Amino acid sequence: MRISVEKAPAWVICLLTGVPFGAYMGALSRNDGSSLRSAVISGAAVGLAFGIAMAFAWRKRLLPLVQAVGPEASRADQRAAGRALRRGPVPADPEVRAAAIRLANRQLELLRLGRTRSLIILSLLLVVSVIGLFADPGSFWHIPLVVAIPLLIAYQILRPRMLRARLEELTQGFEEDGS
């Protein structure tokens, strides 16, 4: 049996995101001199909180995208619309094309709503990570963050531009009613 991510229960999303984050934070705590017991407890607590927050955020972001494609759409049509949005030739099927257009518009709306807040938070995290990297030269636990956060910032900046370009390709010579 295969469970798709958008239909996964909240506890699965909680585990998929909370366990790695909690393990990383526990290892970071242990590396900073905490006892093993303290590191495990703090990693579990932080991982649980992060996992719960991510499960709510995942639902808040993913469900509107599924609804934009159309809740009545088959799984194959949802995948085709997502693929058409990301890459490849413009689909010939007007329903898939219309779903991809709705999906692009919804993604642009979601990015617009959270972009400023995300950029501020990511920038602050980058500053804290760089300070942490130089404050404790023997610890290399901040390196993944110093590498990943600029990539996330670049994604936040470039993704709307990429979506608009793809949306322009999808809408050339096409009207939403399929005519």
Would you mind describing this structure in some detail?
With 179 residues, the chain is an all-alpha fold. It folds into two domains: 1-63, no CATH class; 70-179, no CATH class. The protein is 78% helix and 0% strand. Helix 1 packs antiparallel against helix 2 (36-69) and helix 4 (94-135) packs antiparallel against helix 5. 16% of the residues are buried. The mean pLDDT is 84.
Spell out the key features of this protein.
membrane; 0% strand; mainly alpha; 78% helix; transmembrane; 179 residues; transmembrane helix
Tell me the Rg in angstroms.
20 Å
Element-by-element helix/strand order: HHHHH
Give the total of domains.
2
Q: Would you tell me the overall average pLDDT?
A: 84
> Helix content range of the residues, please?
over 70%
Class by alpha and beta content: mainly alpha
Detail the topology: elements first, then pairings.
Elements: H1 10-31, H2 36-69, H3 75-86, H4 94-135, H5 143-171
Task: Give a short summary of the structure.
By secondary structure, the protein is an all-alpha fold. It is built from five helices and no strands.
